[in-house]
Design a protein that fits this description.
Elements lengths: L1 E9 L2 E7 L3 E6 L6 H11 L15 E9 L6 H6 L8 E9 L4 E5 L2 E3 L1 H11 E4 L10 H12 L2 H48 L5 H13 L1 H15 L8 H14 L5 H30 L4 H21 L4 H65 L8 E8 L10 E8 L7 E2 H4 L2 H16 L6 E5 L7 H15 L4 E5 L3 H4 L4 E9 L4 E7 L2 H13 L5 H14 L1
Parallel strand pairs: 3-13, 3-14, 8-12, 12-13
Antiparallel strand pairs: 1-2, 1-4, 4-5, 5-6, 6-7, 9-10, 10-11, 14-15
Length: about 550
């Protein structure tokens, strides 16, 4: 339940701090005083879309914060899943909006996403505003009500998991069939491409080797001449003037004085190392010079081979033979896939049918539970609506099953049918019920669901629209009864019969200053409650009769 609500710089509210209580509370005030503003602020704590225009004029930011008592709410799993600090007794939700349009959300002072804020907010508060009466025209809402009353939450979650897998397999089958069709249409062209690449008989690294060989073949004479020339510098042809001969003579001269000159031996060793290295180079130069030769036939072959590779690269828009090889492997895999596509499709189809059977089995259980609960709901709704001024009401919870049409919630179509009179055709509530009747139907549904779904706080925003007198009093008693089931119920109302039944009474009012109009909320004491309810009875002029009537209403209800 909400223990404290803080609103700062939101619409007409500059600063609002109010303590709230368990049980049944009412909020009253003139039209336009700011009651809907408070509901809008609470909606932000439920993750609703923020509008920077809601920030009070001249303020840089607005803040909405609520302190909740969560001692009985078993929220530890949520906090663990979202890696948030957990307090078993208290939880603070906060939403901040800036004039620049930025929005931030917090749970226990830890920044969170709006999805996380919405998830925990919907487990703590249910706000029923007037526009939610329109949900009676939504089939999924009606079905969710029936499932809540039937206790189908876990069964529905299991079904939806199986249905999700079934739909995934359906999509995979559709994609496989479509791809197989496309591939078959392209098969001849793909096979032609693969055969052309296969005929080229490409090898890994072949292109680089051929390009290097081509360079050598095209400059064979130049390379051969350079190698022989370099070799000749080291080793002349028999005249003894080559570099190697000179090194040998130098080494011999040094060793001849080694006995009388200590450094000669070391220098001779160093020159000997040079001699060995140069002799090895000379041998290598001569060997490579012999290997290099101009070969027109080989040159033509290499050029022709590279022309084939370059042509294929240009055709397929790639830069290397390795990429052509990768393309060949992909084409071969695709052709193999085409050949095996029928088997693959049948495999997916078999899995899909198996998954459909699993989903169907759970959908059948859901349907059986809904059909059984529908009778219970019909009886319970009649029992609640008759005292609310509908003595001849007929309410039917229609469950139509279409076993060959699985959806996200099973194969049932749920619709609430209604007629407030003894005769006449039963029709969907949203089509036949008046505004006041819809309000009473929604309150009765909420009262039923409240017994199954343990929401700690329920806020009714003018659910009494279209009713008055004794009916309003009975609606108030229904809300009071909901509060006695261990939850906090707040009702925003214009009716004195409802206001008089609340255990706590809050008044929203506007105050005009020289610069602006501000909205405030206060908790009323006993005498203040009498005056407020008297005003609701008689209008702006406060009469003694209205005061006596208000006092009587309060005394009779407490």
């Amino acid at each position: 339940m909400i223990r404290h609500l803080h609103i700062e710089n939101y619409a007409l509210i500059e600063h609002l701090d109010i303590d709230l209580h368990s049980g049944f509370s009412v909020i009253t005030g003139e039209t336009g005083a700011g009651k809907s503003i408070i509901i809008g602020a609470v909606g932000l704590l439920l993750g609703q879309r923020a509008d920077s225009r809601a920030i009070k004029e001249g303020a840089k930011r607005c803040v909405i914060e609520a302190l909740f008592d969560v001692s009985d709410e078993n929220l530890e799993a949520f906090f663990e899943e979202n890696d948030l600090d957990y307090d078993a007794s208290e939880c603070v939700l906060r939403r901040e909006l800036t004039a620049a349009g930025k929005s931030r959300a917090f749970i226990n002072d830890t920044p969170v996403s709006l999805i996380q804020l919405k998830e925990i907010g919907e487990r703590l508060i249910d706000v029923h505003s007037q526009h939610k009466n329109l949900l009676l025209g939504k089939e999924n809402f009606q079905q969710s009500i029936l499932d809540a009353l039937a206790g189908n939450q876990l069964l529905l979650a299991d079904y939806q998991a199986e249905y999700k897998d079934y739909r995934l397999l359906c999509r995979q089958l559709e994609e496989a069939v479509a791809e197989a069709k496309r591939n078959r249409e392209d098969e001849d062209y793909l096979r032609y491409q693969a055969e052309q690449l296969a005929e080229a008989d490409l090898k890994d690294g072949e292109q680089e080797e051929l390009e290097a060989e081509l360079e050598t073949l095209e400059h064979a004479e130049e390379i051969k001449s350079s190698l022989f020339q370099a070799s000749g510098c080291l080793r002349a042809a028999g005249d003894g003037a080559d570099a190697l001969a000179l090194l040998r003579n130098g080494i011999a001269s040094l060793r001849s004085v080694a006995g009388v000159y200590a450094s000669a031996d070391e220098l001779a060793e160093r020159m000997d190392s040079c001699y060995i290295e140069l002799k090895d180079i000379a041998d290598e130069l001569e060997s490579q010079a012999e290997d290099v030769e101009y070969n027109p036939r080989r040159l033509a072959f290499v050029q022709e081979r590279l022309d084939v590779i370059y042509s294929l690269q240009k055709k397929h828009g790639v830069d290397s033979a390795d990429e052509l090889l990768s393309m060949l492997r992909e084409l071969e895999e695709k052709l193999l896939s085409i050949e095996n596509s029928d088997d693959f499709i049948e495999e997916i189809r078999a899995k899909m049918h198996h998954q459909e059977e699993k989903a169907q089995a759970l959908a059948k259980q859901l349907s059986e539970a809904r059909h059984a609960e529908a009778k219970v709901v019909e009886k319970a709704m009649a029992e609640k609506l008759v005292p609310l001024g509908m003595p001849n009401v007929r309410f039917k919870c229609s469950v139509q099953s279409l076993e060959d049409e699985l959806s996200e919630t099973g194969y049932d179509q749920v619709q609430f049918l209604f007629n407030a009179n003894k005769s006449g055709e039963l029709k969907p509530v949203s089509q036949i019920a008046s505004g006041g009747e819809i309000a009473r139907v929604m309150l009765s549904l909420k009262a039923l669901v409240a017994g199954e779904v343990k929401l700690p706080t329920i806020i009714f925003d003018e659910i009494d629209t279209g009713v008055s007198g004794s009916i309003a009093e009975k609606m108030a008693k229904m809300m009071d009864e909901m509060s006695r089931q261990g939850r906090q119920v707040l009702s925003i109302t214009h009716l004195p019969q409802i206001a008089a039944l609340g255990s706590y009474h809050y008044k929203v009012y506007k105050e005009d200053t020289e610069e602006e109009t501000l909205s405030h909320i206060v908790q009323l004491e006993e005498d203040e409650r009498v005056a407020e309810i008297a005003h609701m009875l008689s209008g702006e002029t406060l009469t003694q009769a209205a005061l006596d009537n208000a006092r009587s209403l309060l005394e009779n209800n407490h």
